[in-house]
Structures
1.
Amino acid sequence: TSNQMWGGRFAAGPDAIMEAINASIGYDQRMAAQDIAGSRAHAAMLAKSGIITDSDAKAIREGLLTVLSEIEGGRFEFSTALEDIHMNVEARLKALIGEPAGRLHTGRSRNDQVATDFKLWVRDQLDAAMGGVRALMQALLTQAEAGADWVMPGFTHLQTAQPVTWGHHMMAYVEMFGRDLSRFEDARKRMNESPLGAAALAGTSFPIDRHMTAEALGFDRPAANSLDAVSDRDFALEFLAASSICAMHLSRFAEELVIWSSAQFRFVTLSDRFSTGSSIMPQKKNPDAAELIRAKIGRIFGANTALLMVMKGLPLAYSKDMQEDKEQVFDAADNLMLALAAMEGMVKDMTANRESLEAAAGSGFSTATDLADWLVRALNMPFRDAHHVTGSLVAMAESRSCDLPDLTLEDMQSVHAAITADVFEVLGVHNSVASRVSFGGTAPEQVRAQVARWKGVVG
Ligand code: ARG
């Protein structure tokens, strides 16, 4: 229907556009279960506090369960005219139970209602994210344990640096995802305060019991300031920030898997289940899941930035801008869960190619540091001098297109006369990794100790 004052000139068009820009039901219907849980807790509290009758509360609470089953069964007709999930549910409740439905919104506003719904939704996602990270960590631990002593090149600048173990490399990601896990845990603890009963912004004159609804909804306590309770979206931002860091880790790992699965590297073979072929090149087996993880996580960073932008200019308390919080978080959550599951699947299924790893580990003068360390230890040379002597030997090997262990003792002695034959013992990659026993080093025994420790945490 058109506006009373200028309806003659404006037909239905602007109304439809207003409706389109205003409505959130297209996406906030994902919070139906949370909305109904919040309303049921609120109704029970209103009755307990003597604000509505027990029989009205009963009708409301039962009616809401009917609405929920209609929504879950796909038998609910969402209306854009009713704007959002809150009004859609309430209108349906009214149709089902009549007059008592109108008493549900006593001492409450859509402002505290939406904050409550959204918090409950984000809290579920935090739990899901923690589950996904744990599962991925378990898959990494299995890989690390199997290959605790398999050698591979360690890189800096993506240039061969020093040999490390496969287990050590896997455990580096376990450390990263372990921090992600603790960030999600931490965010969950901080966010777990109930906004319900903050009402529009100032609280309410009804004798409500916010502690009761907080407890019923699994919150630790009610939020202490009503203005803050309805205008806080920190909880969503912390979820996005922690998700962004986790996603960044997923993307780094995805990038490594793309490189490692190439014909030039052959470090890993990804399973058929997590690869795709080419419609033209018959030989192709592409790491699409890894590539899509790498690409999709950009959406999570985008959501984090978008919500910061939405919030940064808002005066207290609620502004309709805040309705723009949900789509970003929904999309980020969906993509995070998908990326975690895809990475877990790839890691579980992938085969590390032990021979390729070992062959690559020895190339590129990867034991040059071991040679320098030997000069320090055996000849009591200052490290800087040892570095210089080793550099000359590397240059010699490079000019002959051979590796350090391929040089003869005479070659070595031509650079430094005091070098003896037992230098060759440290030039092997296995000796190299086995010697790195410092705490947190790549020696297999260190790796196994870290695997055991993390199994105690997530195993
Ligand atoms: N759909 C709204 C949102 O998502 C609910 C809150 C509306 N509150 C208001 N004062 N208009 O934010």
2.
Amino acid sequence: SGSGRAASGGTPSVTYEDIGGLDDELEQVREMIELPMRHPELFQQLGIEPPKGVLLHGPPGTGKTLMAKAVASEIDAHFTDISGPEIMSKYYGESEEQLREVFDEAAENAPAIVFIDEIDSIAPKRGETSGDVERRVVAQLLSLMDGLEERGDVIVIGATNRVDALDPALRRGGRFDREIEIGVPDKDGRKEILQVHTRGMPLADGIDLDQYADNTHGFVGADLASLTKEAAMNALRRIRPELDLEQEEIDAEILESMSVTEGDFKD
Ligand code: ATP
């Protein structure tokens, strides 16, 4: 971003339709986040506390960020995206200050979701902790979460690839006490992801996504997104060899020539 802030805010425009596979996981996310945010009164009546924090864990590129954005967008919540490593790279004292600002901003714009990617870098397990800075930043995060009112209108979603490396204090009651595993997609999941990413593309007759799903064992969503993008670029090179386009230009050309949204080509 260049602004020097490790955070960006707004309401994203991702929908549940942009997520391939992950039906059960999405169901859980909706129950934990969408329900309390839409109907806080139900939780009050039942006398149960809505969650303050939900942890999404699983390998990189499986759709954790996508899912957090989609739920924020579907409930029209303010969304702030912060990166653990970027927060930690700030100068002395700035990490805590920035966390505080993010939580203030969320409270002012509630309903709001604060998404913390690679949260393990902010809150590593003690022992893996290199020292004082982490201790202060974790303490700040815990106190900010403890300070969230129990109205359920601000929820923190943390994402990590290394759930075991996370400070257990963060996973205790009232903090990130709900966890959802976002795993590597199976064949059906891969097919659905391919469907999402080719939705706006003019596919040749006889293209069988089933077959691609069969042949991409081990691919995560991010890999499948690149695969469809590459395929589209190859098609363009073949169809318009005279263009001899640089990568950037090809991206722009594809976006123009096909009714594909820019979001499909990010990352
Ligand atoms: P990281 O841990 O690296 O942040 P992540 O799990 O948050 O990874 P995303 O950033 O959500 O992964 O995924 C990267 C991109 O891959 C998405 O923008 C999307 O294009 C594609 N993608 C990943 N998972 C899915 C999915 N389940 N359905 C559709 N697209 C997906």
